[in-house]
Amino acid sequence: MPYRVTFVCTGNICRSPMAEWVLRHHVDEEGLDVEVDSSGTGPWHVGHDADSRTVAALRRAGYRSAHTARRFEADWFDRYDLILALDEGHLRALRSMAPDADARNRIRLLREFDPDAGADLDVPDPYYGGRADFDLVLEMVEAAMPGLLEEIRAGLKAA
Questions:
Q1: What are the tens digits of pLDDT across the range 25-56?
Q2: The one catalytic residue among 4, 9, 81, 122
Q3: pLDDT tens-digit profile, the chain (159 residues)
Q4: Alpha carbons 56 and 134: distance in angstroms, whole number
Q5: Ranges of each domain in the chain
Q6: Is 24 a catalytic residue?
Q7: Is 106 a residue of the active site?
Q8: Residue 15 annotated among the catalytic residues of the structure
Q9: Secondary structure of residue 51 in the 3-state scheme
Q10: Among 14, 35, 54, 81, fewest CB within 10 Å belongs to which?
Q11: Nearest partner of 141 among 38, 67, 66, judged by Cα
């Protein structure tokens, strides 16, 4: 059975699809049995493609991208082994939706996996910014990947 990971941000067009495709790249490279997807806490962009600036940042860094935005639903908690919020607001929203302690324990902040992140674990929303803001988000996502992959490998061994 695959290990299942999802990333959650606000509208599912910038941060979470970026994190999704970076992780997809790494698990594919390692041949890990992992399913990766993403969603948003709100309905604003459901059915839309990823933001073109997200796609451009991913492509500049050599990642693929294909995406249709969707909203995280409360009945999805059982689908995932790890639910990764991109900022504290998403973390609070997800925890308030969680049906029980087990579900709440599977919700983490992505930057918890970056040992150099410091005290601020939020990945800032680049939506109202420019290329540099999207590139910064990509750098933050990439910095969390080694620790996240370690967590996923441990989860696969425990299964």
A1: 999 999 999 999 999 999 999 999 999 999 99
A2: 9
A3: 999 999 999 999 999 999 999 999 999 999 999 999 999 999 999 999 999 999 999 999 999 999 999 999 999 999 999 999 999 999 999 999 999 999 999 999 999 999 999 999 999 999 999 999 999 999 999 999 999 999 999 999 998
A4: 9
A5: 3-158
A6: no
A7: no
A8: yes
A9: coil
A10: 35
A11: 38
The answer to whether 127 and 103 have CB atoms below 8 angstroms apart is no
> Tokens 């409360």 belong to which residue?
74
- What is the 8-class DSSP label of residue 128? T
Q: Which of 70, 95, 104, 125 is catalytic?
A: 125
Structure tokens at 122: 């939020």
Single out the residue of 3, 83, 80, 102 nearest to residue 40, CA to CA. Answer: 83
Q: Reduced to 3 states, what is the DSSP secondary structure of residue 71?
A: strand
Q: Are 20 and 37 in contact (CB under 8 A)?
A: yes
For the chain, the average pLDDT equals 97
**The one-letter amino acid at 118:** G
Tokens of 30: 């390692």
Specify the DSSP element, H or E, that contains 9: strand 3-9
Residue 98 one-letter amino acid: A
Query: Which is the catalytic residue, given 4, 14, 15, 114?
Result: 15
Superfamily name with CATH number, domain 3-158: Response regulator (3.40.50.2300)
Say if residues 137 and 124 touch (Cβ distance below 8 Å): yes
